[in-house]
Design a protein that fits this description.
With 319 residues, the chain is α/β, with parallel strands linked by helices. The protein contains nine helices and 13 strands. Helix 3 (48-63) packs across helix 4 (87-95) and helix 6 (209-231) packs across helix 7 (248-257). The structure holds coenzyme A.
């Protein structure tokens, strides 16, 4: 499997740290120093599904394929307006594709899981071109009174088209059920048969930031090491480490652990915040469109999030 096209799209409204400091008790200085974030894009007047479809259109255009060439769509999404139908089915209609579609919810680790699944589908030989879209609007999951969570996230979508070819080297995925560290409950319809206490449906995401931070560093470093071991290369042989953009300090800690310079860890968290599973394909698209990726570059992807789910994947850039 190789990546043959990338695309990304963002809502029109940029919300700076200063703007958030007008709403809750925080400051640009605190957010920047603790996270590396300066601003994020937030869904306001537009339809979220149009942003997701825009990223898909751009990835297809970049790949030279059209919607009729796509054999399968995998969409990584944690939450959107619809419980059903799937977001991938909605996007399929907008982009005019007619292939089967599936949504996956692996929180922020979704892109790496989608790559792994796409590789398996291509290997079976039933499909040849797969569109992966990671589309997330975490700002609508937040309690905007909780200053330790709402400052972190931004909305956006990133997409890639993958195809038969040489590129996928190895992946390592893991899930260790730990649901209290980061979760959001949704409001469900009540029935005459439920005796449970009514919960506020808009409680927002709950997160133990320090614990998530520690696990993110530990699991990402472990996943990367496992992939390096499986492929028999060292961290020095990797050209780019394209990591989930959750917190710049997490990325710096992983770079130190791997004894690699920060110049191999591109970041865009300052502009976009944490866009959950969309963060890696958004960053990859920025690198691709800025001409920074050369044929033969080895790219290590690594992501982590609620679950606790994490994974790393090594690919050679062969576009
Ligand atoms: N502005 C100002 N002060 C804030 C604040 C904000 N937005 N958020 C928290 N604080 C305060 C706390 O109340 C606390 O004050 P106290 O010492 O008086 O009690 C202080 O800052 C330190 O809080 P703490 O939670 O220890 O800060 P931290 O250095 O751990 O940073 C996070 C908090 C959330 C930025 C950090 O833990 C983190 O990034 N964790 C990982 C989260 C993540 O990536 N989640 C998604 C994973 S996919």
């Amino acid at each position: 499997m190789k990546i043959i096209g990338t695309g990304s799209s963002h809502p029109s409204l940029a919300v700076t740290n200063d703007k958030i400091a007008q709403i809750i008790d925080t400051s640009d200085e605190w957010i920047w120093r603790r996270t590396g974030i300066k601003q994020r894009y937030v869904v306001s007047d537009e339809r979220f599904e149009d942003i997701a479809a825009d990223a898909a259109f751009k990835a297809m255009e970049n790949s030279g394929l059209s919607s009729s060439d796509i054999d399968f769509i995998i969409c990584s999404n944690t939450l959107n307006e619809y419980t059903t139908p799937s977001l991938s089915a909605i996007i399929q209609g907008i982009i005019g594709a007619s292939c089967p579609c599936v949504d996956i919810n692996v929180a922020c680790a979704g892109f790496v899981y989608a790559l792994d699944a796409a590789n398996a589908y291509l290997q079976i030989g039933k499909m040849h071109n797969i569109l992966i879209i990671c589309a997330e609007e975490p700002t609508r999951m937040m309690n905007w009174k909780d200053r330790s969570t709402c400052i972190l996230f931004g909305d956006g979508a990133g997409a890639v088209v993958v195809s038969d070819g040489e590129g996928f080297e190895a992946s390592d995925l893991s899930t260790s059920s730990c649901t209290e560290m980061l979760y959001q409950k949704r409001g469900l319809c009540s029935t005459p048969f439920l005796k449970q206490k009514e919960e506020s449906p808009d409680a927002g995401a709950v997160m133990d930031g320090r614990e998530v931070y520690k696990r993110a560093v530990k699991y990402s470093a472990r996943d990367i090491k496992n992939v390096l071991m499986e492929t028999g290369i060292t961290a020095d042989d990797v050209t780019w480490f394209v990591l989930h953009q959750a917190n710049k300090r997490i990325i710096e800690t992983i770079a130190r652990y791997l004894k690699q310079p920060m110049s191999k860890f591109p970041t865009d968290i300052e502009r976009y915040g944490n866009t959950s599973s969309a963060s890696i394909p958004i960053l990859l698209d920025d690198l691709n469109r800025n001409g920074l990726l050369k044929r033969g570059d080895r790219i290590m992807f690594s992501a982590f999030g609620a679950g606790f789910c994490s994974g790393a994947c090594l690919m050679v850039w062969n576009k």
